[in-house]
Specification:
By secondary structure, this protein is an alpha/beta fold. It has helices at about 5-20, 35-45, 65-70, 75-85, 95-100, 115-120, 125-140, 150-165, 195-200, 200-210, 220-230, and strands at about 1-5, 25-30, 50-55, 90, 145, 170-175, 235-245, 260-270, 270-280. It folds into 2 domains: about 1-175, Rossmann fold (3-Layer(aba) Sandwich), CATH 3.40.50; about 185-280, Pantoate--beta-alanine Ligase, Chain: A,domain 2, CATH 3.30.1300.10.
């Protein structure tokens, strides 16, 4: 596995690969890698000639400085996990290398960013689009892989691809969960032992609401989930939104053949956790 720390190094390697007509699969990450990332790596490795990943905690997508500073950095373990999963090239730059003196581009995504994460984290998705668009250009990837836990982010990235006219396939991948149902996340390692025992209730509550979906209205599903979180004092529910799976706009009544997803953000032990539940 080649470790590139400059854009010049990365471009040199990518140009060689493209001259040999190699297909490239990209998995962008912020490091603190876990089994959820590994599930993306396996797919990228299987579906492409070459698998490239990145490890970069992107400062411009954090609207909370403390959250940025506390984000786990585990480069040595990240490199090991990438090697174990057949990564060919990993890009590990500094913020100066990524952005230099360039002006940060301002992206707009209309209604897609006027709900959920877009409301709670102003500027977040523009920051995500800045780094991901650069990675798409530098890696010349044919496919890029993202976990569905960040459901809104996938919609945003697809729209960014449309805006920029990139020739790349965005591949959503199923959420990887620990045995107790908790969606794997780099933030999980910040949970205390007691909080980690409580955290799986996020998925359990969503799953219970799914099992009742045919007997409840959408408003009743909403109320059920909100009420269940109120019963557990350790949780602070930031939002639970039931939305159209394409437009991400809130849904009050399902239309025929409409895809519907519930998206949630919860605070536990000072850590912000997100998850989703598909209903239809």
């Amino acid at each position: 596995m080649k470790i590139c720390r400059t854009v010049e190094e990365l471009l040199s390697n990518v140009n060689t690969l493209k001259q040999s007509n190699k297909t490239i699969g990209l998995v962008p990450t912020m490091g603190a890698l876990h089994n959820g990332h590994a599930s993306l790596f396996v797919r990228a490795r299987k579906e492409n000639d070459v698998f490239i990943s990145s490890v970069f905690v992107n400062p411009v997508q954090f609207n909370n400085k403390e959250d940025f500073e506390k984000y786990p950095r585990t480069e040595e373990n990240d490199i090991r996990l990438l090697e174990e999963n057949g990564c060919d090239i990993v890009f590990i730059p500094t913020a100066e290398e990524v952005y230099g003196n360039e002006e940060i581009e301002e992206f707009h995504f209309g209604e897609l960013e006027q709900v959920m994460e877009g409301i709670q984290r102003p500027g977040h998705f523009s920051g995500v689009a800045n780094i991901v668009s650069r990675l798409f250009i530098w890696t010349m990837a044919d496919r890029a892989y993202f976990g569905e836990k960040d459901y809104q982010q996938i919609a945003i990235i697809k729209d960014m691809v449309r805006q920029k006219g990139f020739n790349i396939e965005i591949v959503p991948c199923p959420i990887y969960r620990d045995e107790d149902g908790l969606a794997t996340s780099s933030r999980n390692m910040r949970l205390s032992e007691d909080a980690r025992k409580i955290a799986p209730k996020i998925h359990q509550i969503l799953l219970n609401s799914f099992r009742q979906k045919d007997n409840l209205s959408i408003n009743q599903i909403q109320a059920y989930v909100e009420d269940e979180f109120k019963k557990i004092k350790e949780f602070e529910l930031e939002y639970f939104c039931i939305v159209d799976d394409t437009t991400l706009q809130p849904v009050k009544q399902r239309q025929i053949n409409q895809g519907i997803v519930g998206c949630i953000a919860v605070w536990l032990d000072g850590v912000r956790l997100i998850d989703i539940q598909r209903y239809w």
